[in-house]
Predict the structure of Alanine dehydrogenase.
Amino acid sequence: MIIGIPKEIKNNENRVALTPAGAQELVKRGHTVYVQHTAGDGSGFPDHLYEEAGAKILPTIEETYRIAEMIMKVKEPIEPEYDLVREDQLLFTYFHFASHEPLTNAMIKSKSVCLAYETVEKPGGGLPLLVPMSEVAGRMATQKGANYLEKPLGGKGILMGGVPGTLPAKVLILGGGIVGTQAAWMAAGMKADVTILDVSLPRMRYLSDVMPANVKTRMSNEYNIRELIKTADLIIGAVLIPGAKAPHLITRDMLKEMQPGTVLVDVAVDQGGCIETCKPTTHQDPTFTIDGVLHYCVANMPGAVPYTSTIGLTNATLPYAIQLADKGWKKASKENVELATGLNVIKGDVVYKAVADAFDLPFTAVEKHLVN
Ligand SMILES: NC(=O)C1=CN([C@@H]2O[C@H](COP(=O)(O)OP(=O)(O)OC[C@H]3O[C@@H](n4cnc5c(N)ncnc54)[C@H](O)[C@@H]3O)[C@@H](O)[C@H]2O)C=CC1
Ligand SMILES: CC(=O)C(=O)O
Ligand SMILES: [Mg+2]
């Protein structure tokens, strides 16, 4: 198969979809890998490392899209890329369709096959291609939050762990999945007073077993949220209902209950955000303030630490990319249900229920496209 790796063009997105090591594995299996000139630079992988691994370098994004049967990316295609996507082309990347109607419509119109990293799902649950970036974003959420709590940056002016004779910062985490757990580890390590809210009792039992004493769990409901936001210093949004728009656990009116200088980091912003007032921001202009409450809502947080993220992402995606390249998307999805759950849009049909529901679009069962 011919695989194309375009350079990411989203704001401050320095990741690339494949490392030279990943390219070598695909080339070894007889596939052709084209990498757009300088695509790996931001992650510390200059063109010559790809060439030494057996890949070929193409000068432009247009040529990369034109030649590839499968495009591997990191972020969803953004507007200048919409018209580059070709009919029948396979796109293997993050999409987060449910939070982005123009993207959904553009991919329907393109008649391409869109296999979304974030909905590839293990039969017993678990999102193997979201996990590594959620690990990064969870750890970063605490780092960012600690930073923005500093007074000159708009925060309350509280140190995460305090010092002897003072109270530590209160960190409230909405959702105790991958992002929430990693955020909690970092905050606990900084000696903050951490509370994780989730709706899953088994998950909270697990967290309660493994977390240190400065991490507590509470049931996620409006009553508890309204109580806890009054004194929280840093609130991290980390809920997910796979493929769907995130529920608004913190609504506009609740901001008035918070103290000025409270910091909100809504990691779930890529699925629409679990804080109603969150709108996607960029690494260049990451925050805004409403009612004295600072919001950080960057939708591609891992893009800022590409040395870690690119390798973490390729470690997870490569085994799936190999199956897609070896067998083609249809046979690979028939033989591996995890890949079938990743299919969101196929040749104009929306085949992921939560995406169809988000925009009142007709839903087509994925099986229709997997027969013969
Ligand atoms: N902004 C960014 O750069 C990045 C964003 N993300 C996003 O972070 C979000 C979280 O991802 P993961 O932690 O991997 O998901 P996950 O599936 O591991 O965890 C989600 C958790 O939310 C819980 N939950 C569901 N409804 C809830 C509710 N009403 N109240 C409290 N908890 C609830 C679930 O029980 C689960 O434990 C996703 O939207 C993901 O796309 C991930 C990586 C990077
Ligand atoms: C998960 C995701 O959207 C990201 O890593 O940017
Ligand atoms: Mg994202």
Notes: The chain has two domains: 2-127+306-370, 132-299. Residues 115 and 343 are 4 Å apart (CA to CA). The first helix runs from residue 20 to 28. Residues 94, 130, 133, 270, 300, 302 surround pyruvic acid (ligand 2) (CB under 6 Å).
